[in-house]
Amino acid sequence: MKKKQQQQHPGGGGADPWPHGAPLGGAPPGLGSWKRWVSLLPFLRFSLRDYGFCMATLLVFCLGSLFYQLGGGPPRFLLDLRQYLGKEGSAAHGPNLVLPFPSQVVYNRVGKCGSRTVVLLLRILSEKHGFNLVTSDIHNKTRLTKNEQMELIKNISTAEQPYLFTRHVHFLNFSRFGGDQPVYINIIRDPVNRFLSNYFFRRFGDWRGEQNHMIRTPSMRQEERYLDINECILENYPECSNPRLFYIIPYFCGQHPRCREPGEWALERAKLNVNENFLLVGILEELEDVLLLLERFLPHYFKGVLSIYKDPGLGTLTRTQETKVGNHLSVSERKLPGLQSKVRARRYRGQNLVPQGQTRTRHVSKARCFHSSL
After folding, report:
1. CB contact set of 186 (below 8 Å; sequence gap of 6+)
2. Which of 5, 25, 121, 302: disulfide with 295, CB 3.0–4.6 Å?
3. End-to-end CA distance of the chain, in Å?
4. How many Cβ atoms from other residues are within 10 Å of residue 95's Cβ?
5. What is the rounded distance in angstroms from the CA atom of residue 93 to the CA atom of residue 163?
6. What is the pLDDT of residues 295-354, one digit of tens each?
7. For residue 374, which of 194, 180, 171 has the smallest C-alpha distance?
8. What are the φ and ψ backbone dihedral angles of 278, each rounded to 5 degrees?
9. Which helix (H) or strand (E) holds 186?
10. Is the dihedral of CA 297, 303, 307, 310 positive or negative?
């Protein structure tokens, strides 16, 4: 009797022809599951208003992403908020939140390569953007003992972040002493031009004071002070010969004793350190382009630096006085012992212009931003 009643259901009235979703006759498997999904379609229908709202939201998101990229990062108030929340959270939830940009930058500035101008710009920028500018009163000690390295790295690492530390010092390997390796930046110049600048600076000083040279070189005799630079080179005076001409490469090679010995080892070690640790190594002769790149790569430190640099009021603060002796050099750079390796290093830098993780652009090639080479 039950069998007959079950057979009447397909042709009958209101009974479900497929109870419990079970297929019957020629119904394909899974048809019951499909019917349940179909029953949800009324909830998935969109009105024209809903569609317009979704498209408007997508447009706002795309425009926001575009402005984010063009502006070099998020707005300042968001960074301040994130930094504040990071500090608040560190007390109760562990270490600070990672900032969305390098928060530890070291500018181990090379002497007579425009560093005074850059430091002046950094002072203005630190007040404008609120980062911690850490400077040093030590200007004549670039080589450090192991204990001195440890002490300096400890002092730098404990500075309030984001910080930018600057000093005339050869490259420091923070990771060797258990510290977090910062991002390095630097600016160099043509080795011959740097040699000329330093030669006359030692004799006649600069804008900081008329008697500046008397303070720097009090024991220099008058005949030595007014010595023609060409004679100094041709007669092989100590000032114009090794090892004093081997100056720039140790800033990138590091604190190893062999870094102070002119040769291939120091040059290759310097290249390796630049590849791994330097975000940018620029050329003083193209300073405006270098500042443009710094503004692009480190906007939270250098945003607006180019407009500040071009401000006429800054020129009176950075302009150096003319020396009393013309800086004319008639001898070939090949006559300058020790300059050849530096010239080779600079030319090598010029062949590798693209910073790490960046594509070649007209600004990069014009400014010669030297990452992945020295």
Report:
1. 107, 108, 109, 110, 251, 252, 278, 280, 281, 282
2. 302
3. 96
4. 8
5. 23
6. 999 999 999 999 999 998 876 655 544 434 344 565 545 455 455 554 455 554 544 433
7. 171
8. -100, 125
9. strand 183-188
10. negative
Number of other residues whose CB lies within 10 A of the CB of residue 117: 20
Structure tokens at 160: 């309030």
Strands (E) located in 51-128: 104-107
Q: Among the options 9, 93, 129, 168, which is catalytic? A: 168
Give Cα 243 to chain centroid, integer Å: 31
Cβ–Cβ < 8 Å for 18, 31: yes
Q: Label residue 92 by pLDDT band (50, 70, 90).
A: very low
Q: For the beta carbon of residue 183, count every other beta carbon within 10 angstroms.
A: 19
Contacts of 276 (CB under 8 A, 6+ apart): none
| CA-closest candidate to residue 198, choices 329, 106, 290, 286 | 329
The gap from C-alpha 73 to its chain's centroid, in whole angstroms, comes to 14
Whether residue 300 lies in the annotated active site: no
In this structure, what is the dihedral angle of CA atoms 58, 59, 65, 67, given to the nearest 10 degrees? -160
Place of tokens 């991002």: 183
**The tokens of 73 are what?**
């990062």
CA distance 170 to 251: 4
Domains of the chain: 104-312+333-367 (3.40.50.300)
Which pair of tokens denotes residue 288?
A: 């405006």
CA 304 to chain centre: 16
pTM, entire model: 0.62
